[in-house]
Specification:
Elements (H helix, E strand, L loop, with lengths): L1 H21 L4 H12 L72 E4 L4 E6 L2 E8 L12 E4 L2 E8 L5 E10 L2 E5 L10 E3 L1 H10 L5 E5 L1
Parallel strand pairs: 1-9, 7-8
Antiparallel strand pairs: 1-2, 2-3, 4-9, 5-6, 6-7
């Protein structure tokens, strides 16, 4: 029995060898099976590669907030200067003189002439010094102007260059070429005020340059 099994095994082995050598299609699967049965399959171990990705670190730098303190300007208080005004000395103005009775001019004037009444007065400090005295004044065409004037100048022995050197003693000029002076009380003048000799002298001495003369119609 043992001999038969050995022979049978040898025959199978020889058949398998022949099939492999000839490349028979039917034997190839069997050879592959035998090979599969007799060959120990070695499986290469799987190599696992672990890639470690470093985490991306994003660093955001936040600029610190700078708070600027508001500038506070402190104004120094201006010292209060109290100026004490010295009281002005009491000045009592002299009251205007009361109108002089019978005189048609202001009481503050130094001489008054009333053309319609043919009279004149010499005054001082609101009081009549002389007058009324008779006068003659300008004829038609040479009327004596009405108004308030100032004595400009005086000439005790004046002669008129305009009227043939006519004498005009004790002349007191108060309006350009118009003056008080000694002259005829019957004949009208060329604008001047004629006075008697005594009155002319009194007016000449009583009036100063700058004094006020008022003429009313």
């Amino acid at each position: 029995m043992k001999v038969n099994r050995l022979i049978a095994g040898a025959a199978v082995a020889a058949g398998a060898l022949l099939a492999t050598a000839c490349g028979t299609g039917d034997a190839a699967p069997a050879a592959q099976q035998v090979q599969a049965a007799t060959t120990t399959s070695t499986t290469s171990p799987t190599t696992t590669t672990t890639t470690t990705v470093a985490p991306t670190t994003t660093t955001t730098t936040v600029a610190p907030t700078t708070t600027v303190a508001p500038t506070t300007t402190t104004k120094k208080p201006v010292p209060t200067t109290t100026t004490t005004k010295k009281p002005k000395p009491s000045t009592t103005a002299k009251p205007a003189p009361a109108p002089v009775e019978g005189v048609p001019c202001a009481a503050t004037v130094s001489a008054c002439i009333d053309l319609s009444a043919n009279k004149s007065w010499l005054l001082k400090d609101g009081k009549v010094v002389l007058g009324p005295v008779p006068i003659t004044h300008g004829r038609p065409g040479f009327r004596t102007p009405v108004g308030t004037f100032k004595v400009g100048w005086k000439d005790i022995d004046h002669k008129s260059s305009e009227f043939n050197n006519a004498p005009m003693p004790y002349s007191v000029f108060f309006n350009g070429g118009i003056a008080f002076h000694q002259g005829s009380l019957k004949v009208q003048s060329h604008g001047c005020i004629h006075l008697s000799a005594s009155a002319a002298k009194a007016f000449f001495n009583g009036l100063a340059v700058g004094n006020t003369v008022q003429v009313v119609a």
